[in-house]
Amino acid sequence: MDNRPSRHRHVRIRSSRCEPPGQRRLPIREIGGALVRIGLLTEGGYPYVSGDARLWCDRLVRGLGQHEFDIYALSRSEQQEDEGWIELPPQVSRVRTAPLWTAEDDGVGYGRRARRRFAECYEELAAAVCAGDAPVGSAAFEGAAGSAAAAGSAGAAGGGGAVGGASAGASAGVADRFGSALYGLAELARDEGGLVGALRSETAVRALERACRAPGALRAARGARVPDLLTVAAQVERTLRPLSLDWYEDDGLGSVDLCHATSGGAAALPGLLARHFTGVPLLVTEYGVQLRAHYLGAREDLEGRAASSSARALLAAFHGRLAAEAYRQAEIITPGNTHARRWQERCGADRARIRTVYPGMEASRFSDVGESAEAADADTLVWVGRIEPAKDLISLLHAFAEIRKDEPKTRLRIVGAPSEGLEGATYLAHCKALAAQLFPDEADGVHTVGDNPVSFEEIGGPEVPTLPEAYAAGSVVVLSSVVEGFPISLVEAMFCGRATVSTDVGAVVEVIGGTGLVVPPRNPRALAEACVSLLRDPERRARLGAAARARALELFTVEQNITAFHGIYLEIVSRCPVPRVVVDASGEPLPFAIPAEAHVPGRWADSGTRLVAGRPGPGWAAGPPVRGVPLGYASGAASGEPVPAGEGAW
């Protein structure tokens, strides 16, 4: 039986607590504390089986049973939708989905006045994007954001000046122009029924061309040609598709107490519009900064063709402006680490609104290894993660060659699967070839079979059936990355009580906090010396491993993450209550329809109120309400334990 939820439909998870919006009553709760209705905004992740932010969102929702969640999810691919959802807990009362990966022309025909409104708003948007006053990607920004950011932003600049975005020194006037244009387009979409066709029109492309040719425009954008402008217009239309959704009425996001965007970019856009239309406060959480991901990500257009430097500069500017607007409107911003916080501050986030909340990870699965008295193989180094160029296994293999000169009995176990696509498979093959070249099969005698000291394994295999057993296989865990956000594999090693040697990238130093050794990236000699020092000193390994486990249990557990967000939710609701306008059956306003007890658990008097129905949504994200039958959690999981992914997976 096909148990996948219907695509692009307004889906309700039927339960005893789920009633039509016009008859909604507060449920009875057995858990103390205030009741908050949260609109959880996701892109390419929860509640789908695969994708970003799936794990931490699921843990957050399950851990806050005293609150109620409405899920608003943007999917990234047809495959993701076909895989279905994970099993949702009862506190999820409603799920609404829409695709970012496709959108048919809505067929909306604009009159003369509407066309003029669109042209004016898009002209303002393009002018704000092309304004050359925001030096994200410049040398100063790169120095503040780190070497990884420098590599990405330098490529995005394409050899020509500032690439856009909105830093702390960006003009407030330009930021206001961008926000005004964005909300003007949203109001037009609300009035006319959609924007997809208009955002793809010749009017949009010509507006971009005029903005690129205007005095003071970005230097890299001045050379943009028609193919570049078409690429930019297509990417902007894709990002702005949430403007055409019908999520912002009183029976949608207008009925929640706060919106929680689980990432920046397109996921935060519905929260911005809910704040604009109904005054719902916005919370933005970023464990992987979207703007940084844009710099370091693929440099291709939607058709898979290589994008020019001019197109990348304009897109970086657009994403920078959108990030700045989300930070400006959010009541609270919660980065996952100081590295992400620095990016947000350089993009205009107010420091007073930023609260660092570390990702919550399940510590119990590693307790057997972390509390075990059995000593690991003292001569084995372990690397665990996703195999891709950013992990710099090439430097690790060269460092291991130096280690073998001092400690000939040492072995290296590389545990992980290649990243998706041809690049990951090619990089894994290259690493295996290099390992075979550096370490020919060795044998103890002429009559024994040789054995390579480097092994490549995957979770679920006969040697490492589970993730904890991968960390238990060695006495020292190594991380050799040149680009890293929040190092998940490092935290898992700390839960296991293992001594670590890591490169100084991303949030590594913040996570380690003095409980492991840190060396410069791309320095095999320093990496080798640090590993040898730990291999030769078992007492030091034990001290560092115990300290690392204690630090991880204090800072990086699911419990601390849930507690932090619970407090933030209550703070936002108490400080920024949503102004509600409720009418009775005759359409007359009821000034005291929502009592003060609305956020206290319990069943209160039935409301004789009704909600005003909004306009229908676009055809590509609409349909009659259907019963959602989510996939079971176990059926959606892959066999074996997952290998920790890189930035953005939590």
TrEMBL record:
One of its GO terms (molecular function) is glycosyltransferase activity. Residues 37-129, 252-351 form the DUF3492 domain. PANTHER family: BLL3647 PROTEIN, GLYCOSYLTRANSFERASE. This is D-inositol 3-phosphate glycosyltransferase. It comes from Streptomyces liliifuscus.
